[in-house]
Amino acid sequence: MSSLSGDHLLGIKQITEADINLIFDTATSFKKVINRPIKKVPSLRDTTIANLFFENSTRTKLSFELAEKRLSADIINFSSSSSSVSKGETLVDTVKNILAMKVDMVVMRHPNPGAAVFLAKNIKAKIINAGDGAHEHPTQALLDAYTIRENCGDIAGKKVLILGDILHSRVAISNILCLKKLGAEVMVCGPATLIPRYIESMGVKVELDLLTALNWCDVVNTLRIQLERQSIKYFPSIREYVMQYGVNKEILDGLDKEITLLHPGPINRGVEITGDVADSKQAVILDQVENGVAIRMAVLYLLAQEI
Question: Is the whole-model pTM more than 0.85?
Answer without folding.
Answer: yes
